[in-house]
């Protein structure tokens, strides 16, 4: 069974950009490894060991990111006004007058500090397919709370 990773077009582009950056850096890392190898005895050559390890990490990251793209399912925002992957929302949490902006994204793109919440997080799950004006109950590990949806874009 193949599991497709849901993500926004922006998340897909971010992965493509990181792959391009890593591929651009690979020749430099290979050159460092070759230079370290030419220094002599490899068993006591810390430069060689470090360069080999760093190149291995880069190659591993490239394989991981490539797999993410291969199994990506790009979801575009719902145009019906209901919250879906890619939607930007303004929320007002209970007992708080402040309105906060969030974007609903795929699991790999989530970054709460940047205002990006995963569609499968407790808050994301509660918001999915709801509309502006709805009040939703969020069942989180720390307890339940209510959120009012101010707007959906």
UniProtKB/TrEMBL annotation:
* A Pfam family it matches: GreA_GreB
The keyword Transmembrane helix belongs to this UniProt entry's keyword annotation: no
Keyword DNA-binding recorded: yes
Q: Name one GO biological process term.
A: regulation of DNA-templated transcription elongation
Q: Which InterPro entries match?
A: GreA/GreB_C_sf, TF_GreA/GreB_CS, Tscrpt_elong_fac_GreA, Tscrpt_elong_fac_GreA/B, Tscrpt_elong_fac_GreA/B_C, Tscrpt_elong_fac_GreA/B_fam, Tscrpt_elong_fac_GreA/B_N, Tscrpt_elong_fac_GreA/B_N_sf
Name the SUPFAM superfamilies for this protein: FKBP-like (SSF54534), GreA transcript cleavage protein, N-terminal domain (SSF46557)
MF terms (GO), sorted A to Z: DNA binding; RNA polymerase binding; translation elongation factor activity
Q: Which intervals hold domain Transcription elongation factor GreA/GreB N-terminal?
A: 6-74
Q: Which domain of life is it from?
A: Bacteria
The entry's function note states:
Necessary for efficient RNA polymerase transcription elongation past template-encoded arresting sites. The arresting sites in DNA have the property of trapping a certain fraction of elongating RNA polymerases that pass through, resulting in locked ternary complexes. Cleavage of the nascent transcript by cleavage factors such as GreA or GreB allows the resumption of elongation from the new 3'terminus. GreA releases sequences of 2 to 3 nucleotides.
Q: Which family does it belong to?
A: Belongs to the GreA/GreB family.
Keywords per UniProt: DNA-binding, Elongation factor, Protein biosynthesis, Transcription, Transcription regulation
The name this protein carries in UniProt is Transcription elongation factor GreA
Q: Which residues form the Transcription elongation factor GreA/GreB C-terminal domain?
A: 80-152
